[in-house]
Amino acid sequence: MKITRSDLDKMPSRYRAGLMNTLSGYKPANLIGSFSESGVTNLAIFNSLIHMGSQPPLLGLLFRPLTVRRDTYANIKANGYFTVNAVSLSIYKEAHHTAAKFEEEESEFEKTGLTASYIGNFPAPFVEESPIKIGCSYQSEYPIKENGTILMLGAIEIVEINDSLLRTDGSLALDKEQVIATVGLDGYALPEIMDRLEYAQPGHKPNSMNHGTQKK
Amino acid sequence: MKITRSDLDKMPSRYRAGLMNTLSGYKPANLIGSFSESGVTNLAIFNSLIHMGSQPPLLGLLFRPLTVRRDTYANIKANGYFTVNAVSLSIYKEAHHTAAKFEEEESEFEKTGLTASYIGNFPAPFVEESPIKIGCSYQSEYPIKENGTILMLGAIEIVEINDSLLRTDGSLALDKEQVIATVGLDGYALPEIMDRLEYAQPGHKPNSMNHGTQKK
Fold first, then answer.
1. How many C-beta neighbours within 10 Å does residue A1 have?
2. Which CATH class is domain B24-214?
3. Closest CA to B104 of B39, B148, B31
4. Residue A164 near residue B162, CB atoms below 8 Å
5. Which of A97, A100, A83 shows the shortest CA–CA distance to A34?
6. If you write DSSP's letter for every residue of B39-65 in order, what string do you get?
7. Are B138 and B154 in contact (CB under 8 A)?
8. Which residue is closest to A208 within chain B, CA to CA?
9. CB within 8 Å: A56 and B147
10. Is the ipTM of this complex over 0.85?
11. B21: helix, coil or strand?
C-alpha cells in the first residue's frame, strides 16, 4: 500500500495520528515525575524520551505544543528537576491511566495507585514500582519551529536500578524486569531480547555474542 | 543499585556508554537510505528516529557529533532526501552490518546483501526487504549545543507499507511483520503487542480494547 504526502494531508486527523504514531517503530515507555509549584506530585507517561548522549549523560523529552495546560512541562520549568521511571509489565495500566485529564491539584500517584518514593534529597518523586529510576536536572530546551513541539534536555544526576538488570558490561537486560515498549498512542508491547551482535566489521556478517552473560 | 552523576563521570567510557544506551528503554530500529554526491547508494542503521509530529508529518533523526565522517548526514545535506526503512526479524543481522566502517565509495546495500529499490522517482534508495518504507525530504536541523549532536528533521513525502500491517484505525500492527526494537548498541528485541488500552479517563483504570481488529 502506497501513501503520498497528499494522501496523508487528506486523512481524518485521528486516522493520520494512528498511522504517524506507529510508523517510526517501537518507542520507550517512561513515567515522568515532578512537583507542582504548590508541592503536588505529578506523574505522566511519555513515549518520547530520547537518549541524547552519554558524556555528559543527557536525556531529551519531546513535549507537544503548549496549546493546552502541560503540567509536567510547567513543573519542570518551575522547579528544575524531574524523574524518569521505566514502565514494566506490572504497572502498564496504571502508567497509561496517568494520561487521563486529572485536575492540576490532583496527584496522578494517588489517582492511579502508583507509589511515590524518594532517593536521598532529590527534589522530585520517583515511582517505587519502577525497576529503573532516573533523576534529572533541567538543562535547556529547543523549540521546534515546524510544529511548536519542544525538545527539553535533562542531565542525569542519580540512577537507581534493580540489580537483576545490570550486565557485566554496564548495559541493562531490560527484559529481566519485563520493561515494556509502546506502539502508537495505546499499544503496549513486551519485547524479548533475542540476540546481541558483535561489533560490526566490513568483512563478514556480524555473529551473535556467544559468551555467557553477554548473550542477552 | 544506586549510581550518582559523579559515579557516571568516573566510569570507563564503554561501560558508561553501555549503561546510558540502555537506560532510556527500547528504541526503534530503522535503516536510513541515501545517495552520495557521486551516486553511490548508502545505508545505515539508526536507533535515534523520533516521531516529531503528525501534522505536518515530521520525523527526527539524532546524529552523533560530526567529528568523524558521517556519510548519511553528508548525503542528506547534499541531496535533500533520505529513506527510513523499518528493520524486521529477517534482516536484523544485515541491518547491524551496515554499521561497519565501509569505504565511502562502497555501497552498504551491496556489502550486506540488502536490496535497493525505488518508489516512483523518489530520489533515494529504499530497502526492498523492509515492511515499512518512508521517503523523507530534509527540512531543517537543530544543533544541540550541550554535546555536538544534531537533530535533523525530515518531512514525510511517501510511504509504502505491507498491507498486513494496517489496522482499520490507521495504526500499524508492527508485530505482524516482526518489526524489531533495539536495546543499546548491540541488542535486538522482538516485541509482541500484548494489549491496547482505551483512552485514559480520570474515573477508572483503563480497560483493554476488546473489539476484534482493534485488540492488537
1. 11
2. mainly beta
3. B39
4. no
5. A83
6. S-EEEEEES-EEEEETTTTEEEEEEPP
7. yes
8. B93
9. yes
10. yes
11. helix
DSSP state of B205: P
Size of interface A-B (CB pairs under 8 A): 346
Neighbouring C-alpha atoms within 13 Å toward the C-beta of B89: 14
Which residue from B minimizes the CA distance to A207? B93
Residue B215 has pLDDT above 70, yes or no: no
The pLDDT confidence band at residue A124, using thresholds 50, 70 and 90, is very high
Architecture of domain A26-214: Roll (2.30)
Q: Which residues of A touch B162 (CB under 8 A)?
A: 1
By C-alpha distance, the chain B residue nearest A140 is: B146
Q: What is the pLDDT of residue B69?
A: 86
Torsion angles phi and psi, residue B192, rounded to 5: -115, 130
Torsion sign over Cα A208, A214, B3, B9: negative
Give me the pLDDT at residue A215, please.
45
Inter-chain touch A199–B186, beta carbons under 8 Å: yes
* CB-based contact B3 A56, cutoff 8 Å: no
Task: Give buried/exposed letters for B80-119 (b at 16+ CB in 10 A, else e).
Answer: ebbbbbbbbeebbbbbbbbbbebeeeebbbebbebebbeb
Whether pLDDT at A80 is above 50:
yes
CB A187 within 8 A of CB B34: no
Distance CA A138, CA A140 (A): 6
Q: Which of A1, A20, A71 to mutate to test the interface with B (most CBs of B within 10 A)?
A: A20
Hey, are the CB atoms on A146 and B52 less than 8 Å from each other?
Answer: yes
Q: Give B102's contacts in chain A (Cβ within 8 Å).
A: 202
How far B37 CA lies from chain A's nearest CA (Å)? 22
> A182 in helix, strand or coil?
strand
Residue B210, pLDDT score: 63
Instruction: Kindly list the domain boundaries of chain B, sorted by start residue.
Output: 24-214
B188 with A193: Cβ contact below 8 A: yes
Name the residue among A21, A166, A181 with its Cβ closest to that of B181.
A181
Q: Which residue has the cell 535486538?
A: B188
Question: Which positions ≥6 away from B77 have C-beta within 8 Å?
Answer: B138
Residue that is written with C-alpha cell 494496517 in the block = B166
